[in-house]
Amino acid sequence: MSHLPRLIVSALSGGAGKTILSLGLARHWLRSGLSVKPFKKGPDYIDAVWLGRAAGQTATNLDPFFMRDRVLTRLFAEQARGHDFSLVEGNRGLFDGKDTNGSCSTSQLARLLQCPVLLILDCSKMTRTVAPIVQGCSLFEKDLILGGVILNRTAGNRHRSILRNCLEEYTDVPVLGALPKLDDTLIPERYMGLISDREFGAEEAIEESARILGDWVDLAGILELGRSAPEFQAPEINLWPRAQETPRRVSIGVVKDASLWFYYPENLQALERAGARLVEVSLLDPDAEWPEIHGLYLGGGFPEIQAERLAANTGIKAHIRGLAERGLPIYAECGGLMYLCSRLTTEEETAYEMVDLFPLRTGLSSKPQGHGYTLCTVRRSNPFFAVGEEFTGHEFHYSRCYPLQGDDVPSCLQMSRGTGLGGGTDGLLYKNTLACYNHIHALGVPTWAENFVRAAGVYKDALSRGEPSCPQISVP
After folding, report:
1. Residue range 198-221: average pLDDT?
2. CA 21 to chain CA centroid, nearest Å
3. What is the DSSP letter of 266?
4. Which CATH code, of 3.40.1550.10, 1.10.357.10, 3.40.50.1380, 3.40.50.880, is assigned to 250-464?
5. How far apart are CA 388 and CA 264, in angstroms?
6. Which helix (H) or strand (E) covers residue 352, if one does?
């Protein structure tokens, strides 16, 4: 049993103020000398980076769809241990999940972690109705600890007084703060949620969030709420069962620049545990000299924002195309897939030439073309997954693929849940390159990292024998 002070920030829906509250709390406690471990519930890269920046350390994603309960609770315990406080930002509404039972919801995570919930409420044009809403939330699910409420978008002192009095009169849930109406541009949003911290004055926004909370919120009361969480016990399991003492014998390049930077930390850790040495490389720097690598991981991101620079860097495009032709194992997710296609067309109809490994054009739309959890079955031999293997993932993309001149590009995955390339398929396959709209989490697909490193080893061995190319690699 461990005493792990912890708190989940949630709301009734998206856009209610969870992010500003979470960022402000993390930064305030960091400034107060506390070691705050940030977590983000759900499949999310951008919010997690903002949270990590506010807390001064990398955020960890927790998702009941990807991870079995034993894995999730073990991951939480390992990541929370040694810190003064764990702060979890929920997603969507508190009880919103993937079905009518609320599975994979923030409330399910809160109950699994026995974590007190701090609920932020948009109180625009509302007074007494706040009481039955809060009372209903506190009673809706057994074992949910609704520990406090933050009133948001209040209109003035009189409004705040009425709201407080109603909650004190009709509920047992304490009010731990009341925020005025704030500038909606404090942290701007784009089509995939928050704007990247790389494109905005993140530090100023985070500091302003902390300052606002200092003026309007009972920070000591919230800290005490988190410290009141019950003792926590996680199962004694090994999160990395296949990666005990493997020597680091292969190098895998990981693109980390302004174009591609969506990676779960556990995916990178899994590759290292499986025996890889990770090397950061860039698609944008025309003067960069890439080291010898035996595999390449192209994550998601915003290639459309950097499309002009990506297109102009013809040397790197040719280098990657050559590596793929020689059979280098390349795993690409979403933005990485877009980069490997022939052309990227922005929403403004400007076309940019990409790597041209797959004879497809990707085009941006004003609406999501795929959004949500996925369930995939492998139907073609490839270096990363066994044929017949079924695994979970998620997707969130505003682009879709269009064939050039009717070319039929082989796909690798059959999707029983999700959109992918369309038509129930995903996974563009060429030699030892697999590119998917689908994102995976290594703790939900424990064979992926081991297979990736094994494939990189096969490629390295072929290279050492002086062979001009590596043959098609299949999972045994």
Report:
1. 87
2. 19
3. H
4. 3.40.50.880
5. 25
6. strand 351-353
Domain ranges of the chain: 6-227, 250-464
Quickly state the pLDDT bin for 96 (edges 50, 70, 90): very high
Could you tell me if 212 and 25 are in contact, meaning their C-beta atoms sit under 8 angstroms apart? no
CA-CA distance, 417 to 420, in Å (whole number)? 9
User: What is the rounded CA–CA span in Å between residue 50 and residue 204?
Assistant: 12
Helices within 295-346 (DSSP H only)? 307-312, 314-325, 335-340
The pLDDT of residue 192: 46
- Taking the C-alpha atoms of residue 26 and residue 88, their distance in angstroms, rounded to an integer, is 10
pLDDT of residue 191: 45
Place of tokens 């620049």: 257
* Residue 41, beta-bridge partner list: 62
pLDDT for 202: 81
What CATH number is given for 6-227 in this structure? 3.40.50.300
In this predicted model, which residue has the larger pLDDT, 353 or 201? 353
Calculate Rg over the CA atoms of the chain.
24
CA distances from 263 to 5, 168, 383 (A): 27, 44, 20
The pLDDT > 70 percentage for the chain reads 94
End-to-end CA distance of the chain: 41
- pLDDT higher than threshold 70 for residue 63: yes
> Catalytic: 334?
yes
The total number of residues written for the chain in this structure: 476
Contact 435, 260 (CB under 8 A): no
Q: Determine phi and psi for 300, rounding to 5 degrees.
A: -85, 180
Place of tokens 């410290």: 227
How much helix, strand and coil, in percent to the nearest 5, is found in the chain?
Answer: 30, 25, 40
Which residues, including other chains, have CB under 8 Å from residue 311's CB and lie 6 or more apart?
A: 344, 352, 353, 354
Q: Which of 104, 137, 334, 376 is catalytic?
A: 334
CB neighbours of residue 104 within 10 Å: 20
Q: Which is more confident, 367 or 134?
A: 134
HEC readout, 5-46:
CEEEEEECCCCCCHHHHHHHHHHHHHHCCCCEEEEEECCCCH
Looking at the predicted structure, is the pLDDT value of residue 300 above 80?
yes
- What angle do helix axes 46-55 and 202-216 make, rounded to 10 degrees? 70
Q: What is the pLDDT of residue 189?
A: 58
